[in-house]
Specification:
Elements: H1 3-12, E1 29-32, H2 39-52, E2 55-62, E3 65-71, H3 81-89, E4 94-97, E5 101-105
Antiparallel strand pairs: 1-2, 2-3, 3-5, 4-5
Length: 106
């Protein structure tokens, strides 16, 4: 078959109808209360709260672990090496903050 015929076949082929697929929702995490998570994790949350001097806004329990959002205290958040060592000792997986809210994966 020549290239011209192949192109013609591709262009003139009719579309086929696909069966309907049910829409599935992916729920990666659910918001939980402090008393609903294991005691060891709750102690971590309280340590994060103390470290940042803020207020716990949300705690999430999901397929990849836990996440806590904390409203940060009003102060300059320049961290030195001892601050970073202290934070790492709290066994975090990751941290993200914008000088208002800190989110911590643990």
């Amino acid at each position: 078959m020549r290239l011209k015929d192949l192109i013609s076949n591709v262009v003139t082929t009719k579309a086929i109808a696909l069966p309907a697929v049910a829409e599935a929702k992916l729920n990666e995490a659910s918001e939980v209360e402090l008393g609903e998570i294991p005691v060891a994790k709750a102690k971590q949350v309280l340590a994060f709260k103390k470290f940042f001097g803020g207020k716990v806004l949300h705690i999430w329990d999901g397929i990849h672990g836990h996440i806590v959002d904390i409203e940060m205290a009003e102060k300059n958040w320049r961290m030195d090496t001892s601050d970073l060592r202290d934070l790492i000792s709290l066994k975090i997986r990751w941290i993200e903050f914008d000088n208002k809210t800190v989110s911590i994966g643990f």
